[in-house]
Amino acid sequence: MEVKSIYEAIGGQNTIANLVDIFYTKVQKNELLRPLFPEDIKPVRDKQLMFLTQFFGGPSLYTNMYGHPMLRAKHLAHPITQAHASEWIRCMEESLNQIGIDHSVQEFMLERLRLTAQHMINR
């Protein structure tokens, strides 16, 4: 039996792109999260698309373009609290639900994302 990556299991680049679009629409409307992001969200969306592609087993787009993600270091300039991390995960969970990711796959994805979100907390 061939084991697929999460990236392949959810439908690859098109699904990740859809997830990122829906997620950042939510972020831009979110009172707590919006101030953490620049007005021009496109560069952030593009980086997130590359990162999530790689994070879930697709091509190493982010690393090929920017080098090692060094997520914590790159987020230190932004005051990220437990409330921010929780809200970020809530928006991501809503986005995964909206695009119809299978529940068991979604839970695996969210568990990985929760660990990452917790790692970003710096205040």
What does this structure look like?
The protein has a single domain, classed as Globins (Globin-like), CATH 1.10.490. It has 123 residues and is mainly alpha-helical. The chain is 67% helix and 0% strand. The longest helix has 18 residues, at 82-99. It has seven helices and no strands. Helix 2 (13-29) crosses helix 6. The model has no long low-confidence stretch (mean pLDDT 95).
Q: Can you give keywords for this protein?
A:
single chain, 123 residues, mainly alpha, Globin-like
Write the layout of secondary structure elements.
Blueprint: H1 6-10, H2 13-29, H3 42-55, H4 61-66, H5 71-75, H6 82-99, H7 103-120
Helix pairs in contact: 2-3, 2-6, 6-7
Family: Belongs to the truncated hemoglobin family. Group II subfamily.
Pfam family, one: Bac_globin
GO molecular function, one term: oxygen carrier activity
Give the termini distance in whole angstroms. Answer: 45 Å
Mean pLDDT, nearest integer?
Answer: 95
The percentage helix is 55-70%
CATH H-level superfamily title: Globins
Query: In sequence order, what are the helices and strands, one letter per element?
Result: HHHHHHH
Instruction: Note the overall shape.
Output: globular
The CATH level-2 architecture is identified as: Orthogonal Bundle
CATH third-level topology = Globin-like
Regarding quaternary structure, how should these chains be classified? Answer: single chain
When the domains are counted, the total is 1
Highest CATH level, the class = Mainly Alpha
